[in-house]
C-alpha cells in the first residue's frame, strides 16, 4: 500500500518539525527535531512522494518566478530575503537532496496556500472530503497539522489531481481546487 509523507520543516533543529504520513485511509503525525530523525522516519515509510513545506531552491530575488505567480493570485508567501526563510530553504534543500538520492520523489508545498486552494475550511474538512481518518493522538500541534496538509498534497500529486504554480525556479504544489465540493473523487484512496 503506497504512503505519502508531509513535512512541516523548521528552519532549525532546535525547533519542532511536524511529520505526517497518509497510508490507506489513515493520517498519522508526529513531532521531531533533527535531520537524522526526519530521514529515519521517511526511510522507514519509503513513501511514493514527500511534500516538504520549505523552499527547495534559492531564487535571485525575494520571490522565485512561480511564487510571483502565486502571490499575484492572492496566496501569501514569505520572501526568501528573510534570514529565517533562507535558513529554512538551505535545510529543506539538504533534506530533499538526501531523499532524492534514495529515489524518493520530493515536492515543495505550502500548507496554508494548499488549504486555500482546496476551498476547504481547514484540514479536518479536507480529511473528511477525502474519506480519511486521523489516527487518535495525531495532529496535536500546528506543525503536525501543517505536515498532514503537506502529506495530503503529496497524495494528490501522486494521483495527478493537484493545483500548482510552475516556473523555471521550481514548482509549488497545492491541493486541487474544488476538493471539498467533490470535484476530485479520483484522489480518494482505493483499498
Walk me through this protein's architecture.
The protein has 191 residues and is an alpha/beta fold. It has a single domain (3-187), classed as Nucleotidyltransferase, domain 5 (2-Layer Sandwich), CATH 3.30.420. 36% of the residues lie in helices and 21% in strands. The chain is built from six helices and eight strands, in the order βββαβααβααβαββ. It has helices at 35-45, 65-72, 83-100, 111-118, 123-129, 142-158, and strands spanning 3-8, 17-23, 26-32, 49-52, 105-109, 133-134, 163-167, 170-174. The protein has an eight-stranded mixed beta sheet. Strand 2 and strand 3 (26-32) form a beta hairpin. Helix 4 crosses helix 6. The chain is globular, with a radius of gyration of 15 Å. The protein starts with a strand and ends in a 17-residue tail after the last strand. The model has no long low-confidence stretch (mean pLDDT 93).
Keywords:
single chain; 191 residues; alpha/beta; Nucleotidyltransferase, domain 5; eight-stranded mixed β-sheet; 21% strand
